[in-house]
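Agenda item 2: flavin mononucleotide complex prediction
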Amino acid sequence: MNPSASSDASACVARLLNRYSMGIKHLVEPGPSEVQLRTIIEAALRAPDHGELVPFRFCVIGGAARARLADLFEASAVRRGKSAESCALERERALRAPLLIAIIARIDLYHPMVPAHEQWACVGGAVTNILNAIHMLGFAGKMLSGEKVRDAEIVGAFCQPGETLTGWISVGTAAKQPGERRAKPVDDVLSFF
Ligand SMILES: Cc1cc2nc3c(=O)[nH]c(=O)nc-3n(C[C@H](O)[C@H](O)[C@H](O)COP(=O)(O)O)c2cc1C
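Presented output:
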């Protein structure tokens, strides 16, 4: 550790190492306030962004707007021939958490300097920063996508031409402790050149 790092900074990193996704059925009120939401989006904007392209934008669905999203999710499941049970579950995916953040990628496939994979890396960084900020503010969340991100009607509700609907981060307060997680050893991914 850098000797100039404060004990506060160490505590922050320790907290980051405890970040986990929480299933939507365990996300309850309260969700973040508007001020907290803006902080969360500021964190997203700190993702490493080659060329400062900001290859993403966000659309928040909270309160009564979730019912409109539930209608969209359900109609998509019906179109895909899902069972009544699956269709009901799709409604729940929109209604359970206090708030959802749609992640909309804006990838410039023909950018002369920044290839698409670098822009996607930035989108991933934004998603991670959102999840970390949610966690650091005492909330919990989970990113979900599924087949419906490719449903033309749902895509049309969120995206302009050329944009990609990446999924939704559900956000709320965790109603339970996280379950046991599979260990991911550092040595499996770390080498020195
Ligand atoms: C773009 C993206 C889409 C995802 N879509 C789904 C999904 O549709 N269903 C799912 O179970 N997990 C999905 N995940 C994974 C979960 O959000 C979560 O990361 C995973 O369950 C591991 O949990 P952890 O974040 O606690 O490590 C997605 C993750 C990302 C980044």
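Discussion summary: Helices lie at 7-16, 34-44, 65-79, 84-95, 116-136, 152-158.
Owner for follow-up: CH.
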